[in-house]
Amino acid sequence: MPQAQLMDGAGLARQILEETARRAADLKDRTGVAPCLATVLVGEDPASVTYVRMKRNRSRAAGIESRHVALPADTTTTELVAELTALSADPAVHGILLQHPVGPHVDERAAFEAIAPRKDVDGVTLSSYAAMSFGLPGFVSCTPGGIMRLLDAYDVGLAGKRAVVVGRSAILGKPVGMLLLGRDATVTYCHSRTAGLSCVLREADIVVAAVGSPRLIRGEDIRPGAVVIDAGYNAGNVGDVDFDSAVTRAGLITPVPGGVGPMTIAVLLEQTVTGAEHALGV
Ligand code: NAP
What we know:
- Helices cover 42% and strands 14% of the residues.
- It folds into 2 domains: 32-117, Leucine Dehydrogenase, chain A, domain 1 (Rossmann fold, 3-Layer(aba) Sandwich); 142-260, NAD(P)-binding Rossmann-like Domain (Rossmann fold), CATH 3.40.50.
- The chain is globular, with a radius of gyration of 19 Å.
- The protein has helices at 9-31, 46-61, 77-89, 108-113, 126-134, 142-153, 173-182, 197-202, 243-246, 261-279, and strands at residues 5-6, 36-42, 65-71, 95-98, 162-166, 186-190, 206-209, 227-230, 252-253.
- The chain is α/β, with parallel strands linked by helices and 282 residues long.
- It contains 10 helices and 9 strands.
- It has a 6-stranded parallel beta sheet with strand order 1-9-8-7-5-6.
- α1 (9-31) packs parallel to α10, α6 (142-153) packs across α7 and α6 (142-153) crosses α10.
- It binds NADP nicotinamide-adenine-dinucleotide phosphate.
- The site of NADP nicotinamide-adenine-dinucleotide phosphate (NAP) has 26 residues, from α10.
C-alpha cells in the first residue's frame, strides 16, 4: 500500500514560534516594550478555559506578555463590548483574542466588531475578513492562515488546482476557501446541504476538511495523490478524515493531532508580534 507523506504541523509551528520569540525579543531590545496579547474569556467553559490557558502559556514562552480578562458567564453584550473597546484603546495591548463561543445571550458579532482591526490578531472582524478576501494587508483568521503556511511549507502548488473545502464556518471554512482562491486555486465549498459529497471530493487535488464530524471523509473519497488537510478536531483526538484509509490514497496528509492544530496558536502569536511591531513603528 502506498503511504502519504505526513505534513508535520507540530514541527512547523515550533519553527514559527522560535522565529516569533526572536522577533519579540528584538522588539523588546529596540523599544523596551514587549508585545502584549490580551485574552478575554466569558464564563468558565472547561474547553475554553483550557484553550485560553494554552494560548497564555505559549505567549509567555515566546516573550509575549499575556493580559487576561476573565468575565462572568452572565456578562452582557454591552459589558463585553465595553471591555473590548477599552482594550482596543489601550496602547499597551497589541493583540486581542476573544475566546469563542461566548454564549448564546451575547451578540458575538457585536463583540468581535469592538476589536480594533489593528489588534484583531485572531482575524475575526469584518474588516479583517474583507481585507483577506481582497488580498489586502491585514490579519488572517489563524487556522486558515496556518493551513496556508503548511501548504507552502510542503511546496504545494495552488494555481489552477481544484480545492474542495468541506465546511463553511466564518472562522475556518469560508476564510480558507478565500485564501485558496486568492492563490488561484479553483475552489468548491461543500456543506451540510451538499449533494454527492463523495463525487465532489473525488475531483479534488486539495481537500480541506473543516466539519467537526469524526472520520466523515473516507479514503475512497480521496483522489490518488491528493493533498489532504484535516482541520477537524473531535472527541478522542480524531479528525474529520478517516486517516487510516486516506493515508493510503493521499500524496500528503496532515495527522490529527500534530497537523493543523498546533499551527493556529503559532499564527496567533506571530500576528501579535506583527501587531506590536506596527504599533511601535518597527
Ligand atoms: P462549525 O462552525 O460547526 O461548521 C461546520 C461546517 O461543517 C458547517 O459549514 C456545516 O455546514 C458543515 N457540515 C456539517 N456536517 C456536514 C456534512 N455531513 N457534510 C458536509 N459539511 C458538513 O465548525 P468549525 O468551527 O468550522 O470547526 C470545524 C472543525 O474544525 C471542528 O472539528 C473544530 O474542532 C475544528 N477546528 C479546529 C481548529 C484548530 O485550531 N485546529 C480551529 C477551529 C476549528 P452548514 O454550514 O450547512 O451547517
